Amino acid sequence: MTRSGCVNVAVMGDWLAEETTRLLRFAEGARDPAGGFGRQHLGGGLVPGGPVELWVTGRMTHVFALGELLGHPGSADLVTHGLTALGPGGRLRDDRYGGWYSTVAGQTDRRKSFYQHCFVVLAAASAVLAGHPGAREVLTDALDVVERWFWDDTEGLPRQSWGRTWTGTEAYRGANATMHGVEAFLAAYDAGAGQCWLDRALRMTGRVVHGFARAAHWRVPEHFDPGWNPLPGHHRERPADPFRPYGATVGHGLEWARLCLHLRSALSERAPDWLLADARALFARAAADGWAVDGADGFVYTTDWDGSPVVRERMSWVAAEAVAAAGVLHRVTGEQGYQARKRLWWRYIRELVVDPGGAWHPELGPDGQPSGTVWADQPEVYHAVQATLLPRLPLRGSVAAALREAVRDVG
Fold this sequence. Notes:
The protein has a single domain (9-410), classed as Glycosyltransferase, CATH 1.50.10. The longest helix is centred in the middle third of the chain and has 21 residues, at 195-215. It has 411 residues and is mostly helical. The protein contains 13 helices and twelve strands.
């Protein structure tokens, strides 16, 4: 640190590179010998008998594709391990009915979830961008499934989930799955899947951000009925749910802000002006509602619709999205306010969130000490790895495309 409390830029760059490497090494312990990736203990090492979840396997395969682009030792083999679990005959692939199971091992869940399928698309697209053999086939398969079962062209938004045999679609729609659909479709577009995926990313962002969030004073409505009518009281009795919590999720406001700018970059001269304006508004609302609102550093997990905190635990993924969004907004606008926030929040991450004996603490209490209200183990390192990479990359539609470009420029 400098005497002013700001992080020296050169030193910060070195630390980010070291932290990327450290996180990738930690993530190696998530490899399940039977196929796919599982959750880890907080200090590292596979949780024995734990579930192998599609979203975790997809995110970790994506992370190791980024590692492969970086030339991190062993990453290519781990991408192969992930793609094997996702490919034909793989542990998570339903070869009879198509698509992928949500969970195998532990408590098996054979439902087909759009949220989880998004990470198959992301993993395969990032592996394609890394030049990994076999990735294109998995990506084509995943996009075919999304096209057939999840994409609702009338709404310009996705359906949520189905039973194993593609019957009994869920009477619920969610902004969280939609957000990760934007991320996945941008990666698919960067991997050469076609213009329609970029167009769909814009349609989804327009509905959720420029429509629903703008109408809700830039707090993103998360839960909807099948006609996409907001359900503001959904899960009031389960406010700390890890995937569908009650109220507004601060980290999703930050994540949507960043994705607006990735989308703007991918669209180039076709980008509507509202993407930047809405990114600013989402960021401002999330920062005001979330950061240190109860007198202690850190972002609360959720707020009520008036902005008052509901779940006060601090999730590391929210801090990761905060520094990423602040950094991208500073790059796009040149405004020093975003840079100042980014430095403040990186200092918080380095002092409290980073676990020298593990990865990043998944969750801290309002007192700054590790907590386990929402996450009692370490499911993945995807948010943290991306946060350490984005400050060193050009702004592109996807992280993998940006990293590939940066690596080629250095080479």
